[in-house]
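Exercise 7b. Backbone tokens:
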């Protein structure tokens, strides 16, 4: 299992990406936040001698997890059914610097996210937002033994965790984070109760998209406060 951690600078909004590979094939978890970010990850995989992915899993539909998908060739994209409709709507929006500016003028709270998108994308003509080609509702196991489990939550309705039994790892995506900044209220906090429900003695590591990995003991201490 290989993990490219998320970007610490909040203005760049780069989610972490993982690759799970064995003789049965390889699974990419999240696509990168842009085609150029995806190409950076591809170069790192090549340098590390890791195989190209056969499956691409979306932990949820937010842009920093899926906008790189169009740069990954020959993959089956797997995601939760509720995210598919949301991504089809996103794909119909006229993404461009002009559109970003117009939307921010309509809703100033979109400013940080939309500025990050403008920084992320080198070519708007290249960008294509791709819904999953295979959807599931509750959980599904891929041919490699990787398990996808829908958990929902306040951050995104399609939030999915990815369990890698052979590595004793659970990839949490953004599932326990509060809602995105433009939707967040002062009362919104991290959903530690959701993490608590996910803790499992057979899983030794918990990896979130924008946070440092935690051991099982770390996670229990965090929940205990």
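Sequence design result:
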């Amino acid at each position: 299992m290989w993990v490219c951690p998320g970007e610490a600078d909040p203005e760049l909004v780069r989610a972490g990406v993982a690759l799970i590979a064995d003789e049965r094939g390889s699974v990419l978890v999240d696509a990168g936040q842009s085609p150029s970010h995806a190409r950076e990850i591809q170069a790192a995989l090549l340098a590390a001698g890791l195989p190209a992915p056969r499956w691409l899993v979306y932990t949820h539909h937010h842009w920093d997890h899926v906008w790189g998908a169009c740069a990954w060739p020959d993959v089956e994209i797997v995601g939760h059914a509720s995210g598919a409709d949301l991504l089809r709507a996103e794909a119909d929006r006229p993404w461009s610097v002009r559109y970003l500016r117009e939307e921010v003028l309509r809703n100033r709270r979109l400013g940080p996210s939309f500025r990050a998108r403008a920084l992320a994308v080198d070519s708007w003509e290249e960008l294509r937002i791709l819904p999953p080609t295979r959807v599931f509702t509750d959980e599904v196991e891929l041919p490699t033994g990787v398990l996808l489990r829908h958990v929902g939550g306040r951050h995104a309705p399609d939030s999915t965790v990815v369990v890698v039994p052979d590595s004793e790892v659970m990839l949490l995506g953004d599932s326990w984070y509060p809602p995105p900044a433009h939707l967040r209220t002062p009362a919104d906090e991290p959903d530690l109760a959701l993490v608590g429900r996910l803790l499992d003695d057979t899983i030794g590591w918990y990896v979130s998209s924008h946070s440092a990995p935690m051991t099982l003991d770390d996670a229990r201490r965090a929940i205990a406060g």
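Instructor comment: Residues 2-224 form a domain with the Metallo-beta-lactamase; Chain A fold (CATH 3.60.15.10). The chain has a mean pLDDT of 96.
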